[in-house]
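Sequence only, no structure available. Ideas?
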Amino acid sequence: MLNQLSDDGHVYYPYELLIKKCQEILEVDREVIIKALGTISLDKRIVIEDLNENIDVFRENTKAVYLAKYHFSETSIANKLKVLIHAPKLVRKIYTDKAIEWVQKQLSITLAEKQKEAIKSAIENKVMVITGGPGTGKTTIINAILKIFSRIGVQILLAAPTGRAAKRMSEVTGHEAKTIHRMLKYSLKGGGFEKNDENPLDCDLLIVDEASMIDTILMHHLLKAVPQQATFILVGDVNQLPSVGAGNVLKDIINSQAVPVAELNEIFRQAQESLIIVNAHKINNGVMPSLKTSGEKLEDFYFIEKEDPEEVLKLILEITTERIPKRFGFNPIDDIQVLTPMHKGVVGTSNLNMTLQQVLNPREDGITRGGRNFRINDKVMQIKNNYDKEVFNGDIGRILNIDTETQEVMISFDGRTVAYDYPDLDEIVLAYAVSVHKSQGSEYPAVVIPILTQHYVLLQRNLIYTGVTRGKKLVVIIGTKKALAIGVKNNKTERRYTYLRYRLAQGNNVS
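Reply:
I predicted one. Tokens follow.
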């Protein structure tokens, strides 16, 4: 039950609610479950902890049950961050005002006040968070910090949770960025990361982008490897969907007020010309996006009103295969990504992928594994971390070759060819359409998003916001204004049971 709940994002679950859930499934008396919880607690497979009863949000749910690994990871994150915050810097003193003046000349830019404050905070503090939506200047701040720290000759490392996010970070900064897994050197033989507290990373500054995607377990491993003298900067958009794995780490760190947070909410002039960015901020503020615009130039944000799911499907096929490529010159497979809130239904990932595959890659030759049909040239996605192949959850590739004799499939991920035996294909799905959750950390030239009232259970502000902010040059939403309004107004994100915020806040407050 706890494993299943961690798949839903919970780091722990309240004792009484857990007993109820177990009773429903097992149909046994409460006493039997209490006894069993006691036994596995003695075996150290779970940890039962009385949380701080003063915290009113818990009310009757002050007793928490953790899987042992999550309790260990959550307490470790809090302890490691506290040590990092208070450990001295080894970097020589930087005169902040002079550095900011110098970096503006170097980059030929004028920084806004909030950007200056963020850079100042990065120079003066050991740990900090930079958060903000698209177009608010996060990249400019990262580049300015890199310039200043490079000038004094310190060791710098850049990382991101996914291959795509790391690649984008490299492109915008000109510095090499790696995935967190690659940076920590996952060893299949050792069954863990080679970089840890005994063998820390060699860096004085570590900047991690797309930090909203980092779950509890990964953050635990990352912090184990950060040397005490290093400056640690987390950059991310806290309004996106939380990590796929358990926890809500970035949000908890921000809410704990244990570290300084630079919150950017001003959209810069060049970004104001993009309706995608303007509308993303409107959605994030609970305001309906502008759906009708008048202007000479080709707009980058479109809404097409359609209610019937079958008609929406027909329109998705038409605009991804004909209308967008014709008008904007985008490649239907490489440049256009369909993002959907659902897996099931007419416009869920399963049906969309089958239909789009028939239209975009209508070949006869292919193989079927576990009910999935794969063909040469198919667009596919890896759905779990495979350290052996160095391919990670969310990486998108193309099938280059299928060898029926050797039962091997060759897939190209960003120019790197990886071999899959037939049984390995359980880790691969078609990716003409992917869920909004799976698109985190990625950007696509164009995205098409169906939003219908049949999705109402899933329609949340952070889901629509995450979907819209994946589109770099074009966003097309197909559906009903009613469904869009339900999502934009619904800011009740599903509660995740985590206690990191309070562990960090205890005796360690900077506010």
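The longest strand covers residues 471-479.
Hope that gets you unstuck.
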